[in-house]
Design brief:
The protein has 414 residues and is mainly beta. It has strands at residues 57-59, 65-67, 75-79, 84-89, 94-100, 111-120, 127-135, 138-145, 150-155, 165-170, 177-182, 186-191, 196-201, 214-220, 228-233, 237-242, 247-251, 271-274, 277-282, 291-296, 301-305, 320-325, 333-338, 342-347, 352-356, 364-369, 376-380, 386-390, 395-398, 407-408. The strands form eight sheets. Strands 3-4-5-6 form a four-stranded antiparallel β-sheet, with no helix packed on it. A hairpin with a 4-residue loop joins strand 20 and strand 21.
Length: 414
Amino acid sequence: MAFVGWVEVSRVGSVRWVVAWTIAACGEPSAGSEGDAGSSSATVATAESGADGPVDGTADSGGTASCDPVPPGCAKRVFGGVSHHCAIRDDDTLWCWGSNEFGQLGSGAASEEIETVPVQAQGLGPVALASPSSGIDRGFTCAAQLDGRVFCWGVGHDPTTAEPTLTPVEVPGLSNVVSLSGGPGHVCAATGGGEVHCWGSNAVGELGTSEERFSTTPLLVAGIGGAALEVAAGRAYSCVRRDDGAILCWGSSVLGQVGPNASMDFSQPPSLALEGAVQLAVSRAANVGETSCALGSDDAVHCWGRGIEGQLGDGTSASDAQPHVVMNLPPGLAAVGVGGYDVCAATDGGGVYCWGTSEAQPQLATPQPCPIGGLTTELAVGNLGSHARLEGGAVYAFSPSSGSEPRRVELPCE
């Protein structure tokens, strides 16, 4: 399984902006092979440990894109933020890198320096989930431990103070958390009992209530109408995926990101945006976080909300509250991820396909294949960059919107 966010993902080792379906991702059929690009019948190449060096994704004589060996790593999960990012190692410790202006890396100190080498977040037990988040004059991280408790640090998780929290502080009233997502100014969590709780800013009802301007403690979101499996917090709005596949959203819907049944009366319960979903993703960018997407049980990606930069994948640059089926994606989709100006989907064979806008590629209104070079098992969305976790645990950072070359994140494994 793999998922990805952001536009035009390049192959690891050298940036390549792919504009033709004839270039296949590692493990996907290439031009001249039997079947369409991205066909579920693709022979999957295996990424094994080997010599250091760039990773390449080229087609072999059999018509399947192959991969040079990738030295293994120790990441079991990776989580993307706006300006900082985190990974969970095999030993369940949390490591973060990027901006640390507000102490959001969890090292116990704030710094103006950008940390390119991950540092361990201190004061935590074994970690299951993390959500690095940023907004204007804020940056924070929340993490759910394996015991289901949630801790946060940095600036922004507590709307009453601008002073950095340099060590993890437990969020009161939460237990058995199974899904966690932070937007620029609020955080939501789903529990094993199927409830959704949100806290932080509540300017336009993103906490699921109209009665509070903000809350430092999690508030139960009423009106979900079923058991919650997954939450996603965007720019002043929130969404949940229920166990029956329904996606419900609430909060701001200026560009349709809450869906076709949104109400400006924030006292109303969450509204239905889509049915038949198996995975949910929203943009968490502070400036353009208004795109919602879901992978459906129909093996299609559905997107709604902001489409100005082509994020809806329908060949237009229009925003719409009605979900649109993304065009020209191959079968066998594994997941979808949403960046600020762009969106990507991944196949169960490890290939990725992206659409939207970037500086390097003005606009891709429909998906194009984006070779990473290794078999991607997870990829985290970041507004200023994304991170791919490859088979074997290596993590690569890339920022295709700037055209920079991907690099391996040197996550300490000792």
